[in-house]
Write a structure and sequence with these properties.
The chain is α/β, with parallel strands linked by helices and about 280 residues long. It has 13 helices and seven strands. It starts with a helix and ends with a helix.
Length: about 280
């Protein structure tokens, strides 16, 4: 469990304590939900740390449980993890595989993803060999890792998400990711072949921004948006998880702005094939 998930679970425990210690007598989850006009599932999700409360949720909760003066403490907890930074070096002390498992859990709980990657092929679309080379490069930079093969299997298994009913991946990548030799040319060639096979898949909307496209934003800062509830983005030193509404809105706006420069369908196929043919001449 990540620090982000632990903090959210701890907040849920505190909310449950408030419900059970109501001055007028303990409330059941159903009774509290009725007082608040919420679905009963929302109370359960908040208490189990499966959903992040908003400041408005906390205000309503503390008032409904007869403890309005208690609002400040859970609100401070919320502020503390709305922008959570997970140091790569700290996260990797237990190996590469647990890091991938954390994100896989969040993806499994999502039905729609909006992904932008400027330098590498997005993880959900990677071949196993391509993934292995990418992870080895990061491990060489950040920390030795003995579990790269296990992490590869975890990331490949994550791709089962693409074949589940009701899931949609909206992904954009820059042409640079199609040409970067982070791996041997033969591995990249197989990776590009996989991308072309995914064009037209009903759960995948694949866009490519060609080098020749006019850009409204710099082609930088890869990120994932999960169900309009969570943003995951990476830098060299850390992975950042953001779930406040303003950040999610900003990243969705950035994604849609980048999308204006992307090509799809046959045009995307042509950009990928051009990169593929270039490999045979290197």
């Amino acid at each position: 469990m990540t620090d982000f998930q632990q903090a959210r679970a701890a907040l849920g425990v505190r909310l449950r304590e408030l419900r059970l210690s109501c001055p007028t007598g303990r409330l059941t989850g159903a009774q509290l939900a009725q007082k608040l006009g919420w679905a009963g599932s929302k109370v359960s999700k908040l208490e189990h740390g499966w959903q992040t409360a908003t400041p408005e949720d906390l205000q309503a909760w503390t008032e409904a449980t007869g403890r309005p003066e208690a609002y400040t403490e859970p609100a401070a907890r919320l502020t503390g993890f709305e922008s959570h930074i997970r140091s790569w070096r700290r996260a990797l002390t237990h190996g590469v595989c647990p890091v991938h498992e954390d994100l896989t859990t969040e993806i499994d709980h999502s039905t729609r993803l909006w992904v932008w990657e400027e330098a590498v092929v997005p993880g959900l679309l990677q071949t196993a060999d391509y993934t292995r080379h990418v992870l080895k490069r990061y491990a060489e930079l950040l920390a030795p890792a003995a579990d790269i093969d296990a992490a590869v299997r975890t990331r490949v298994k994550r791709q089962e998400w693409l074949y589940r009913a009701g899931r949609t991946l909206h992904v954009i990548t820059w042409e640079a990711a199609l040409r970067a030799l982070i791996c041997p040319p033969s591995t990249l060639a197989a990776q590009l072949d996989r991308l072309t096979s995914l064009i037209g898949m009903d759960t995948v909307e694949l866009g490519v921004i060609p080098f020749s496209a006019s850009l409204k934003l710099p082609a930088a800062n890869g990120f994932w948006v999960l169900d309009d509830r969570l943003v995951v983005t990476e830098d060299w030193h850390a992975e950042v998880w953001l779930d406040d509404a303003d950040s999610v809105t900003l990243y969705r706006k950035a994604w849609h702005t980048l999308r204006e420069s992307a090509v799809y369908g046959t045009d995307a196929h042509n950009v990928i094939n051009t990169a593929r043919r270039a490999l045979t001449t290197t």
